Amino acid sequence: MATPNFWKQFQNRKRKSISLNGIGSSELASKNGTPRHRFIKPEPVLYTELLVGGFSVKLPPNMVPYTTQRTMMAKILTSLKNKLNALIESPTGSGTPRHRFIKPEPVLYTELLVGGFSVKLPPNMVPYTTQRTMMAKILTSLKNKLNALIESPTGSGKTLGLLSATCAWLVRYKEDRERSKAECRACNGHASVSLESVPPGHENTVGSWLASSSDSLKLSAKTSTDLPLINKPLLTLEDEFDSDFASSPGSAPTRRSSLFLAEMKRAKLEEGEGEEKGAHEGHTCLPRVAIYYGTRTHKQISQVVSEFARLPYGHDGTIKHTILASREHSCINLPVRSSGDVNGKCKELISAQGIGCAYKNSMRGKYERSAHLRRLLSQSLQSPNDVWDIEDLVNALKASTPTLCPYFSSTRVLTQDADIVFCPFSYMIDPIIRDNSDVTLKNAVVILDEAHNMEDVCREAVSFTFTENEIVAARADFRAKAAEVHNALEKTVRKQVAYEGLDNMDGGGTDRMHDALANLSTNFKTLNKFMDDILEWFVGLASEVAKRPASREDRYTQTFSWERLYASLEEAKLVIFGEKGKTSPYAFLLDALGVVAGQTGDEQDYDMQLQHYKPLSASIICVEKFLYFFKAYFKEDNRTVYKLFICIDKPFVPFGSRTRRGDTEELPAEVLDVSAFGNDKYEWLDSRSRLSGYNEIKRGYRVTLNLWCMRPALAYLDAFKDCRSVILASGTLCPTATFRSELGTDFQQMMEGSQVIPANHIFAAVIPTGPTGYHLCGTYRNINGDDRFVREISLVLKSVCEIVPKGILCFVSSYRLLDQIYEFMETAGILRQIQTMKRVLCEPRRSSQMNEVMAQYEEAITNSECYGPQCTGALLFAVFRGKVSEGIDFADDRARCVFSIGIPFPNAMDEQVLEKKKFNDDNCVKMRILTGDEWYTMQAYRALNQALGRCLRHRSDWGAILMADERLLQRRSNPHAAKVSKWIREQLRPLSSYKQFTEELQHFVASMSSNSSVNSEDASPDEASNCNSSIVDS
């Protein structure tokens, strides 16, 4: 990452600070809240900053104190810190220094007082009104342990506002916490142990799972309020860490240790509550608080970190950070990277039988502690910038001496003292990934940026998908390994018989191996019985669906109610999560999986020989997914929020592809084709992995079982119920009513920010009729009834292409409608007319083709003359909720117009949508959630707002927002019109005719095109400082 310009400019200048106290009194705002005149900047005040006894002491400008003064300061600070009295004698006239010493290098920053907190901002930056309001809302939320919904339009500096306010609060909180620790008798009465002095992995001392299912957990509680951000109860740096879940083409994600560690932590809370309470009894000090800043993707993390780098907090050491990223993004081992399966190859190298990784081994000892690692990192960066992103970290540690592993550095070591952790949503919300990464959110401040899809993310996190191939393959793998263990056990028995009567023939090795194999065999039997029951349950339900009539798409589907789902589990004896404790079937299964996966038991017993019997990762994941489902399903009686959906259809995706929670990869034929299963009831008939006797449910069809969670609050509360505050932010949260009901959380602070882009830069309009006078109403009936709607839309779009230069985005509700409009325009000759003015492109269905389409789109905008003398740019057809609607920055010429067709209601015939609507209707009173129709409407308008936000990306940008549907007219008779984002509603132009629309649009475009001051290059320094403070997906 390039060093920010302002740090380069000011690293050799004197220390200055601009203090903006009481900002806002001189503000003159326009009607839409955009300042016409920037705030009056006070003259910078030059001060001297001196470090004395760990305290930053500020002195008058250009002053360098006497030695006497420095000694006096040290005495006073020591007295105040330790509650001591002092006598200070200082000669008259000692206030003026005679001997000067070296001044510290200055840092230039802007300081703003908000709600009693000193918020530091980039140099010379004056925040927008929207940013100041946002900071006040955030600081109030954090101070009072409240949750907040923050909607701030693109270009309003949302990301910078979130970071600056949160960091300012944390700095104050850390100071308060230090004072509380000094006053805490319990802390002062015992030896204080710093995290820096504790080897990583030992902050939370716990026992290990015992091989026997009847043994109990042996856990010990924390005895300090210094809770680490990442709990590592079982593993140290010498162990294999399974915190990476980036799918790779070669293998499924490994999630072996997550459930075991998660259960140990939960068991500690349930069984060791009294012990922990006793350990903390008498503590009056404040707990440690960390910030978790979540984004949707790794790419967005880099953009957020670049904003963090503009603030002084990361450079002056007050706020330390780290990033949770996958091996795919951080591995520097060339053989591993070139293997095609970075995750799997890394795990293989560092496993017990692996040859090890030199970069990871170099971290042993000294660099297992964050202080040493941060010092090395600072030296290796060779830059005054102490804030780094993953790319910076990789380059720095690759060039450092010694060369260290960036993955383990960022995710395991630097988390020890990090104040702010940047990570994708999944590391916090997905229970499997969260447990694998050992992310602890208790007392944390969580910021979820671009959280408009949070409901879907949470619902998907606790929904699970299984396929026939996945279950049968896992069962075959377990039984194959069980057979191998059984054969090995028989050999040891024969060896024991041969050694009988001989004294210590092999040092007791045979007896130890016999015991280990016997234990392994017992646990394999437990898992095999479980997989037999699972497969029988799966086949029984799927066979019932296969007998139903097929749909027109040759699909067989059926949705089972929660009552039927529970009854089927009871019949199959799969109600395994009954009572707490080791006596429940769930606990037995958990122990069994831990033993066969090599995560529990005696490490000496589970040596190289036993590693041979470990099941494949895909098999372990299959069982673990079921256990996670049962855990969520039976917890707090959540059974009513789940629906079971079975689908039997023809595969339409390449073999082996899968979704995040979908089918794991196919197992090798040699694993499945074993003779030990000749007498078994169920066997796979795939030609590459045939097991005699098993009859496929429906030959040639894919059978999928979906366990859908209808209540996103289940995942949300499980992740964030113990947080201090949760802040949901986005450029388009509106409508916000669903967040409270669907996430089961009260958001006491809410903000709907105003647009910072000047009103004369925005042309927003609803187009109720087309050029022929036909009313535009994009209902399913109108779209599919005849060609009139599509014809009228095509003519409107042609007019817009004639008027608006450069890039135009056109959003439709589905790929089917996209194809329908495109084919009509092609047949009617309208497409040929548009192609003389614009290069016409369509959003691809496959993500792999998106980069190529975007390259063509940008090329047509940049070099339009290459596509014809009349060509002015490009037209890109896109789908609401698709790849274009979020994740791509369409600033300036990339999107001079966003044209939306209709209102993007979810597919009313989709099974999951139907079940969600029905669930809300059935539970709206009891659970205090929206009705099905209300929820359905909210989803439509949120998708609309998100797409409309693709246009107008910064303060100097300009563009047109056009909505072709009369239902969006702002009328009293239309209560839903208010669900459009506030900043768009405020800019809507009243139109009396289609002719007025085209004339006003022409005048707007001509005015903007001729005004050179609207170009982003001409933005003032202050505006430019704020323009870029929004991540791509705002």
From TrEMBL:
Gene Ontology MF term list: ATP binding; DNA binding; DNA helicase activity; hydrolase activity, acting on acid anhydrides, in phosphorus-containing anhydrides; iron-sulfur cluster binding; metal ion binding
Top-rank taxon, per record: Eukaryota
GO terms, biological process: double-strand break repair involved in meiotic recombination; nucleotide-excision repair
Region of interest called Disordered, as start-end residue ranges on this chain: 1011-1034
Helicase ATP-binding domain segment(s): 117-500
Tagged with keyword Isomerase: yes
Pfam family, one: DEAD_2
Keywords of this entry: ATP-binding, Helicase, Hydrolase, Iron, Iron-sulfur, Isomerase, Metal-binding, Nucleotide-binding
InterPro entries: ATP-dep_Helicase_C, DinG/Rad3-like, DNA/RNA_helicase_DEAH_CS, Helic_SF1/SF2_ATP-bd_DinG/Rad3, Helicase-like_DEXD_c2, P-loop_NTPase, RAD3-like_helicase_DEAD
GO cellular component: nucleus
PANTHER family the record matches: DNA REPAIR DEAD HELICASE RAD3/XP-D SUBFAMILY MEMBER, FANCONI ANEMIA GROUP J PROTEIN
UniProt protein name: Fanconi anemia group J-like protein
Organism for this UniProt entry: Toxocara canis (Canine roundworm)
